[in-house]
Specification:
The structure holds 2 protein chains of 2 kinds. In chain A, about 75% of the residues lie in helices and about 0% in strands. By secondary structure, chain A is mostly helical. In chain A, helix 4 runs antiparallel to helix 5, helix 6 crosses helix 7 and helix 7 crosses helix 9. Chain B is of the alpha+beta class. The chains are: A mainly alpha, B alpha+beta.
Chain lengths: ~300, ~575
């Protein structure tokens, strides 16, 4: 088990190294210059001397492989480099500011989505082909089908512009968190519910469930102890990457509700050719996804004792 | 069957818990709150998770507090430009700088320079040396006095090569003698810069040459004092611009800055205008809403008091009985045009350039853009010296003349004309406008103009690659100060292959440069206007480098409770702003 985890972690580092080389190459190959140097409206404002100084200051005058090595040696020491959009600020400081906000939003939404989604799926499976099932699945289908931008605008129209209950913008108070969390949560909730239901229905037909019932276990025990646990494997498979993607922030939700999180910073970075920021965020996103998948694989073994790693 | 149900269940719960906290810890570990604190992810976790909740977002519950809510999307991601007058550039940063800093002059509604930090000013005989007398009651926001020496130090600092925005934004300062060499490190002696405090209240500028318009330039935030001690103590990483360190001398002071979220300003009791007129509000909150739909919703819920109207929303707002009354329109000093490449065939033929200029029905373009623009037939904006509605009568839309010019140039009905394209960044407005222009070229001249609309970062890079070099290039010029010199000096820079980014435009004209130079040094306004008219006719018609399209109009929504905004072609000035109780 531990050997397995160690091997996976070593693999993860190799993956991240490859990821960093590819991202660096692609972002350098993308046409465009940072610092607004190619903006013709800046033509009169940026003199050749200034241009030279700026490029030197940010190491952009060196060959690309040298730039990569410089970036890498700083990165592994925890210095992610100077941001090209947020001038004179180190990327790690910007991320330290933006990440907690996205993580708070994402973790809240992910926890709610997975908990409520599982409950909804279990209810739908237990009361399958009844009105309860249909209602639960209606919510689930709607959650998958309604695009988040429609949902967000609809919520703003209803709760902000018509009812005047909730503010549209900002972050930091509970009333500002309700709409973004709801928008972020609904899709994953729906997916979780549908996976849980399908998986539950699969397991309910198994022989050991019939055996459990036959030996006289109460239905509640059968469902929680025998059906749900076995049904959770596909759900957990989905949950890992879902959590990883949710804590890395949603470009759309952060944009429309004006939340100063990491996704907003990432969009800004791409537009401004902020290479150090793009690199740092890609590596962190990648690392999180790898970590989530590893956690999922380890959890399989816990939920289903038949799965063993060696 | 269930040998150890409890231990496994608790292990499950424990694993879930640790995974979650590991995720959080991982986000922290990767992004240490304190630099190089990678060894203590656990400590960082608790500190960082509290951070968002401590952000005190101006609760509307506060009793009778008069708060003005503004929006500045450009501040999103801006670390210092909004606060450091030395890094000021563009309307968005200028407006924020002016909340905090008083430069030497400010503009009234008619864009005339009025005394701000300076009481009075006078030039020498040829307007190349200017002497400003400062007010005696200038103070920092902590009550300490400000003298001419602070101004001298600040302007030299703003012109120095090593200021925080990297090399300094010097295009408003390089009119001063010695600045170009100083910022280019050819002369490292700060005393070579032509600004000097003659005594505590007298500041003298020595310019490169005569400049009658200099009092108009010293309105710019680059000419405001900056706190010397704070910059020396906290200058690294722009820390001095943080609310706890920054001192300012303007109508408001910065008290709170939640990065990428909002900034809060309160009236500065030590500003010289504070006692003349009691401040008309208690607080200004500048939000950073980038999404235009969100900004409109925020205005409608009262989360914003002033909003720049997005073009797409204009028809709805104009039709809205309430909001249409809150709309203020003013002409911005901004000209939109297409730049041509006179060095490339067939655009080297003036007849071709003229044909392209008069095949555009600018009235229709204005309609396409919901009348948010005014047709432009020259580069100088209305109200500026040298603007004249009849300067280039030939520029009027005339399909027949356009066809004839093109035929004379050897392309009757557009036959034989090579493929060409316009390069622009993508917005809905530009897309609509260039589709319309392309259709006009097709209908009138039989030409196919392709659209190369792309992301602004990519745009410049593509223009540098030979096969993709655009034939026409969309560009606009928003004036930095309301004097024709600003526009014409920029146009003249297109003659110089070293200062333009894309030298391949290769525009050659023997008269344009000298005319602009002569106009800059001319003191008599009538003569200056004549010189600018001659130059404008050359640049747009006689040997054109650009095809003017429109002047921009700004539409603002302002809540009726907001009063005393100074609105002119440069935008809104908030120095006297008030809110009705």
């Amino acid at each position: 088990m531990w050997q397995y985890i160690a091997r996976r972690i070593i693999q993860a580092f190799i993956t991240l190294l490859v990821l960093s080389v590819l991202t660096f190459a692609i972002s350098k190959l993308t046409p465009g210059n940072p610092l607004g140097l190619d903006d013709p409206e800046n033509a009169a404002k940026i003199t050749p001397e200034m241009r030279k100084q700026l490029l030197e200051h940010y190491n952009l005058d060196k060959p690309i492989p040298v730039q990569y090595v410089l970036w890498f040696t700083h990165f592994i020491r925890g210095d992610f480099g100077l941001s090209l959009v947020y001038r004179n600020e180190h990327v790690q400081n910007i991320l330290a500011r933006a990440w907690p906000i996205s993580a708070e939003l994402g973790l809240t939404a992910a926890t709610l989505a997975i908990t409520l989604g599982t409950i909804l799926g279990v209810i739908a499976a237990v009361y399958r082909n009844t009105i309860v099932d249909y209602l639960s699945m209606l919510i689930a289908v709607a959650g998958v089908a309604i695009p988040s931008f429609v949902l967000a605008i609809g919520l703003i129209l209803l709760f902000s512009l018509t009812l005047h209950w909730l503010p549209v913008t900002g972050w930091g108070t509970p009333d500002r968190a309700i709409m973004p969390i709801f928008v972020l949560m609904l899709g994953p909730l729906a997916t979780t519910a549908r996976f849980t239901r399908a998986s539950m229905l699969e397991v309910i037909k198994q022989d050991y469930v019939r055996t459990a019932r036959a030996k006289g276990l109460p239905e509640r025990m059968v469902i929680t102890r025998h059906v749900l646990r076995n049904a959770l494997i596909p759900v957990i498979t989905v949950a890992g990457p879902t959590i990883a993607s949710m804590v890395t922030g949603s470009v759309f939700v952060e944009g429309i509700f004006t939340i100063p999180g990491v996704a907003n910073a990432f969009v800004n970075a791409i537009g401004g050719r902020d290479y150090p920021m793009i690199m740092a965020q890609t590596i962190i996103f990648g690392g999180l996804v790898i970590l989530a998948n590893l956690a999922v694989d380890v959890l399989y073994g816990v939920i289903d004792p038949r799965i063993r790693y060696s | 069957m269930n040998a150890k149900p409890i231990s496994r269940r608790s292990f499950l719960a424990l694993t879930a818990l640790t995974t979650t906290s590991a995720l959080v810890a991982c986000t922290q570990a990767a992004t240490p709150a304190a630099p190089q604190a990678t060894g203590a992810p656990a400590a960082a976790t608790s500190a960082a998770t509290e951070a968002p909740t401590t952000a005190p977002t101006s609760a509307p519950a506060a009793v009778q507090e008069r708060v003005l809510y503004l929006n500045s999307p450009a501040f999103y991601g801006d670390p210092g430009g909004g606060t450091d007058p030395g890094c000021s550039g563009g309307m968005n940063t200028v407006f924020a700088n002016q909340l905090m800093f008083s430069a030497l002059t400010y503009f009234d509604e008619k864009m005339q320079p009025q005394p701000d930090s300076a009481e009075s000013w006078k030039p020498n005989s040829d307007s190349s040396v200017w002497t400003f007398t400062l007010r005696k009651d200038l103070k920092w926001s902590n009550g300490q006095p400000i003298t001419a020496k602070d101004f001298e130090w600040s302007i030299k600092r703003n012109a120095s090569p090593d200021i925080s925005c990297g090399g300094g934004i010097i295009y408003m300062l390089d009119i001063i003698k010695g600045v170009t060499d100083y910022v280019g490190k050819k002369n490292t002696d700060p005393n070579s810069v032509g600004v000097k405090a003659l005594d505590d209240y007298t500041l003298q500028f020595t310019l490169n040459g005569p400049a009658a318009y200099f009092p108009v330039m010293v309105e710019y935030p680059n000419y405001a004092p900056v706190p010397q001690q704070a910059i020396k103590d906290f200058g690294k990483d722009t820390q001095w611009t943080q609310p706890q360190h920054v001192l300012s001398n303007g109508p408001f002071k910065l008290v709170e800055w939640v990065r990428d979220d909002h900034m809060t300003y309160v009236p500065n009791q030590y500003w010289f205008g504070y006692s003349d007129k009691k401040p008309g509000l208690d607080k200004i909150v500048v939000k950073m809403i980038k999404n235009t739909a969100t900004a409109v919703a925020a205005y409608e819920t009262g989360e914003l008091d002033v909003l720049e109207v997005p073009t797409g929303e204009l028809p709805r707002i104009t039709a809205d009985p309430v909001e249409s009354k809150q709309m203020v329109k003013f002409a911005k000093l901004l000209t939109q045009y297409m730049q041509i490449r006179p060095g490339t065939k067939p655009f080297d033929d003036i007849r071709v350039r003229n044909a392209l200029a008069i095949a555009i029905d600018r009235e229709s373009i204005a309609k396409v853009l919901n009348n948010t623009v005014v047709p432009a037939y020259q580069v100088l904006a209305p109200g500026m010296l040298g603007h004249d509605d009849n300067l280039i009568p030939e520029m009027a839309y005339s399909p027949d003349k356009a066809r004839k010019l093109l035929a004379d140039a050897g392309f009757p009905g557009g036959q034989g004309f090579p493929k060409f394209w316009i390069n622009s960044n993508t917005t809905d407005d530009y897309q609509n406008m260039f589709e319309a222009i392309s259709a006009m070229y097709k209908d009138v001249l039989g030409l196919n103009m392709e659209l190369a609309l792309m992301d602004p970062g990519a745009r410049g890079a593509w223009a540098d690659q030979t096969p993709f070099r655009p034939h026409l290039w969309r560009e606009m010029w928003g004036m930095d100060f309301p004097d024709s010199h600003n526009t014409m000096n920029f146009m003249a820079s297109k003659l110089n292959p070293n200062t333009t980014i894309h030298p391949e435009y290769n525009w050659k004209d023997n008269k344009f440069g000298p005319l602009v130079k002569q106009a800059a040094q001319e003191v008599d306004p009538q003569k200056r206007a004549d010189l600018y008219k001659q130059a404008d006719r050359i640049g747009c018609w006689e040997n054109p480098i650009i095809i003017p399209i429109y002047y921009a109009i700004s539409e603002l929504l302002i809540k009726p409770r907001v009063t005393d905004a100074i609105i002119n072609g440069m935008g809104i000035t908030y120095r006297n702003i008030a809110i009705k109780a």
